Every structure is written in C-alpha cells, then in structure tokens.
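[job 4471] stage=fold_predict status=RUNNING
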Amino acid sequence: MAKETIAGERMNRYLPLAGVNDGRTTEDYVAYVSPLPAGTNMRTDGAVVILIKESAIARMFHRLLSEEGAFAYILNEKAEMIVSASAGGERIVPVGFDARGIRWSA
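[job 4471] inference complete, writing structure tokens
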C-alpha cells in the first residue's frame, strides 16, 4: 500500500481500514491520505496518513440521530460507504441520485 499511496493513486482520499491492531485492541479505522509537500499535484515526496477510529465517527453521528429511523453515512469518491450509523443500530444501505436526479440504492 505504501508505494501506491506515494504514487498518488490514493492521495486526498478517505479509505476504510478494517481490523487495525494498535497493539492492544483491533478496530476499524478511516484513513485520510494527504500528499507531502501539502497541496502538490506534481511530484510527491511522501504522504501524511491520518487515522480516525470508525467508532469515533459513529459517536459523532449518533448525536444527530435522535429520531427513530434516522441514519447517516460517508461515501468515498466511488460512492462506496466507508462509515455509517443509524438511530436503531441497523445496517445502512446507501441511497443516492444519479446525474438525472433518479434515485438509486447501492
């Protein structure tokens, strides 16, 4: 993954990371990958990878999910769900619209 990341394929992206072990626990994370030097689109010398616990993002969502049936999720640039939360804890199926405004479900 390191060579792909530095090559720019995964720059300025949110990536799901399942089953990351920090030496004590294993949790799912979301990684944000940013190029070094910052703001460059040309030659990349490296990358900054920021890891955010998926559970921390879900806790932020839950503050907003007070109504029954409420849900929230984050999609990446390919419309793949990387984090989700619902008021009742049920599995989320992403819903969206295509360029013509027609509703679709993933």
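[job 4471] summary: The two ends are 27 Å apart (CA to CA).
[job 4471] exit 0
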